[in-house]
Amino acid sequence: MNKGLEQVTTIAEVRKRVSLAKQQGKRIGFVPTMGYLHAGHVSLVEKARQNCDFVVMSIFVNPLQFGPNEDFSRYPRDIEHDREVAGAAGVDLLFTPTVEEMYPSTVLTTVSVTQVSEPLCGKSRPGHFDGVATVVLKLFQIVQPDAAFFGQKDAQQLAVIQQMVRDLSVPVDIVPCPIKREKDGLAMSSRNVYLSAEEREQALILSRSLQQAQAELKPGALAREVRENIVRTIETQPLADIDYVEILQYPSLEPVTTLQKGQQVIVALAVRFGHTRLIDNEIVTI
Amino acid sequence: MNKGLEQVTTIAEVRKRVSLAKQQGKRIGFVPTMGYLHAGHVSLVEKARQNCDFVVMSIFVNPLQFGPNEDFSRYPRDIEHDREVAGAAGVDLLFTPTVEEMYPSTVLTTVSVTQVSEPLCGKSRPGHFDGVATVVLKLFQIVQPDAAFFGQKDAQQLAVIQQMVRDLSVPVDIVPCPIKREKDGLAMSSRNVYLSAEEREQALILSRSLQQAQAELKPGALAREVRENIVRTIETQPLADIDYVEILQYPSLEPVTTLQKGQQVIVALAVRFGHTRLIDNEIVTI
Q: What start and end residues bound the annotated signal peptide (chains A, B) (predicted)?
């Protein structure tokens, strides 16, 4: 049982606590986050608690995965709130390192995953997935968990991490967890806090367009046509500025033309509302 | 004590054996090699046995670290001989995976270390150190050793691995081991077997030129002048075809001009004799 949350800030302390838990025969679950926790993160912790005996959560806004014009410095942070949420969710150990603890000197090492990291967000955010792969691998080396839990909201991130873990034989089970949504369908995201009331209202078109598309995702359908219908639906909202809408094979993220029975595809989209870029997706077996 | 050598070929088997040894409280030492073992490798095993309770050696000629015109296919292999040498040296577990076991599908993940991997062999062998960093990290994930042992013969490789381990917080102690030389001074290398009698004779100039240089490596000396003297010495041998001779700071591999007291520098060289490219170096504190 969870005896209450402990918070540590150094690599040495995490390792000490995890090593002790392992000596007690506990299976270690790991939930890496950038904080500003919401019910999506809580669902990852719940899954980790079902699967493991000791749950470590990291909160680290990783500068390596933000581009020069992205929202690293204004990314929302609220560690007091996060500690409460993490404790209530049943996290055993909260790891909140500073940037200096994680990167005490210039990082010369980069982990890159080609192909899966190239379409979708990889196009709009060059270098983003290198930053993700590098920090996730480093966190895995620090925490040395048995299993790690990732939301399917970041479906491409999940595909990149799964590929990295397979290629490098990283001894961590990667457990995908379904997207959590607000009651009205908006996919939960720490960035939703940026939205004005009007943007928030119009952003509902994302989940709605994905839902509408589901009926069209049938054997024999042309991915291009389904995609165009989604684009048209999103464009009914004047504040929506589409970055991409794509239908690809999942998890390889290779192109798809005519949908085939049994094929697994992802319908993925990224849309800006004002300064806020939101992503959403559905993974569907045809 | 060493109860005799066991050989395994799969990732699952290595993990099982290592996990058992860890449960018995043993400290795991790891010696990654490309086989065709010589006294240099044996010295790594000896160091590992002093430092650890259970020694794993891998033999894997890693295709990722060979360029298209390099000697991957003709790299010398003799697993029967290697098994004997490893057993006599006191290796507990020999891991000899096939290429298919290590890379069952196309590897999309690459680990790159900038700066330290760029000069010296990085210039002559583009992509080489990406291949080295990637396979070493993968082997570390497979074996999960407490310590790993590398020869200073491959000084740049060692610097790249040390940087990678630091940047990614890989939980493995990297232990450098001194170069082993034949009685006449030639640095031991699996590639020495390629040399004709005449090439072998002329190749002695490498260690001799490094030894001569030692007397000149004093505070106030100009690295450029010491380097030129080494080049002149090597060029006395007609079969010697210089790839590079460099003096750099170690382990950063940054340029150096006037040598300063207390500075650690490497004198590194790569020279071809016929089709055989040999490397040698001396690391000196001024």
A: none
